[in-house]
Amino acid sequence: MVWFLSTSFALNAQTVRDSILVSERKTDRPLTLHKGQLQFNAAYGISIISGEYDNERNIVSLTEKGMASVMHKYYLGIGYGVVDFLQFSTALNYASRGQRHETRYLWTTYGDVQDIEITEFDEYRGFEDLYLGAVFKFPFNTRTFEIALTPGIYLPLFSNKPDKPENSIELSTTQQPTTRILYHNNHSYGNGILVMEFGTVAMLRPLRNLNISARVNYRGPYAETKMIRWIHQLDGSVFNYDAIPYLYVLGNTLDYKIDLSYQAISWFCVTLSWSGRNTTGGWSEVTGYRIKNRDTNLSLVSLGYEINATGRLWITESVNVPVYGRNELSPFSINLGISYNLFPFDKKIR
Fold first, then answer.
1. C-alpha distances out from residue 122 to 166, 168, 240, Å
2. Is the dihedral of CA 116, 117, 120, 121 positive or negative?
3. Confidence tier at 13 by pLDDT (50, 70, 90)
4. 8 Å CB contact between 13 and 6
5. Could you count the other beta carbons within 10 Å of the beta carbon of residue 131?
6. Per-residue model confidence as pLDDT tens digits over 212-225
7. How many angstroms from the chain centroid is the CA of residue 92?
8. When comparing pLDDT for 73 and 115, which is higher?
9. H or E element, residue 331
10. Distances from the Cα of 223 to the Cαs of 8, 188, 248, 252, in angstroms?
11. CA 306, CA 270: separation in Å to the nearest integer?
């Protein structure tokens, strides 16, 4: 108990280097955390998915088909500045989404009432892979321009294999002549294999209250991955399931982001962003044959802001609008985040 109280006091006490965070605006911050700076990040995002892009880049309305969905995403991250030009980071995301497909009706007899009603529901939930990364900034002696390397890996701590389906059937009766079948499929977010990432980020400060940053990341899988798909057989009113294993290889992904940040006042900064993601390559044997994955891409425009609530606490919010894509969902999303910063090992001010 004594150790906990002393540690808590140390973490909350004002230190010599806290003055850096008090006077530092968003547009002044370097690409890496300061030496000894510990940063905790948490965020929540909600995405409304009312459309998707087809292979010809045309938008297809999911709302008209009754297939619109909402995704909730939670983000946790920690960063630490080892020295002024080297930072280590880790992050973990959790997401959930449910999508209902169009209800189908079947007639096996002649009549006004359908004999069979079939509904399919896909549920996506779980942790994504754990990210471990670093930021190495080239130690140029200039404030106007900065550039850094951003290598990282994604560790498959959580299973990529989906849980068993939760199908159900409601047989017809005299009062209810329609047999209702629900196919409830479960999906996970994990990749199931080590993924390596290499990237770079650069920042330019042409004016005192303005900075421009750009980042590019390329990631790909270490090897092929084992996966399962579920098949079922209906025995009366009971579903029996079997897991069928297969192999697949993740595609290689290139993502990019360009930010234009303007410091309106000392504690308020506005950011306009353009970001995108392109995935190519990879294959899957889910059908029993090796089939190449579809190439996908998605581009977004974002508008956000950051408020320096205190020298240690920053609050961010952004709105993200899809512009164009191919073989991808079209999410409209809002993200809200907080960042808490401190120098836990620095000398305290008495």
1. 10, 14, 19
2. negative
3. very low
4. no
5. 17
6. 999 999 999 999 99
7. 9
8. 73
9. strand 328-342
10. 44, 19, 9, 12
11. 7
Taking the domains of the chain in order of start, what are their residue ranges?
Answer: 2-342
Give the distance, in angstroms, between the CA of residue 166 and the centroid of all CA atoms in the same chain: 26
Residue 111 burial class via C-beta count within 10 angstroms: exposed 0-12, middle 13-18, buried 19 and up: exposed
Residue 9 tokens, joined: 């006091």
Question: Residues near 173 by Cβ (< 8 Å), separated by ≥ 6?
Answer: none
Give 165's contacts (C-beta < 8 A, 6+ positions apart). 183, 184, 185, 186, 230, 232, 239, 241
Nearest residue to 296 (alpha-carbon basis) of 247, 273, 249, 329:
329
pLDDT at 2 over 50: no
How far apart CA 75 and CA 181 sit, in angstroms, is: 36
Per DSSP, helices labelled H in the chain are: 2-12, 18-23
Length of the chain, please? 350
Task: Please state, in angstroms and rounded to a whole number, the distance separating the CA atoms of residues 69 and 48.
Answer: 6
Give the rounded distance of the alpha carbon of 241 from its chain centre: 31
Give the phi and the psi of residue 58 in degrees, each rounded to 5: -85, 145
Query: Can you read off the two tokens belonging to residue 43?
Result: 């965020």
Q: What does the block give as tokens for 178?
A: 């329609």
Q: What DSSP assignment string belongs to 202-239?
A: EEEEEETTEEEEEEEEEEEESS-EEEEEEEEEEETTEE
Pick from 148, 169, 167: nearest CA to 217: 148
**Confidence label for 8 from pLDDT (cuts 50, 70 and 90):** very low
Question: 3-state DSSP call for residue 47?
Answer: strand
Side chain identity at 226, as an amino acid letter? K
Report in angstroms the alpha-carbon separations of 150 from 92, 201, 310: 17, 7, 28
pTM, full prediction:
0.88
Which tokens in the block code for residue 32?
């890496």
- Collapsing DSSP states into helix, strand and coil, what is residue 18? helix
In CATH, 2-342 is 1.10.10.10:
no
- In the chain, the amino acid numbered 71 is M
Q: How far apart are CA 110 and CA 112, in angstroms?
A: 7
- Residue 153: both structure tokens together: 């890996």
Mean pLDDT (the chain, rounded): 91
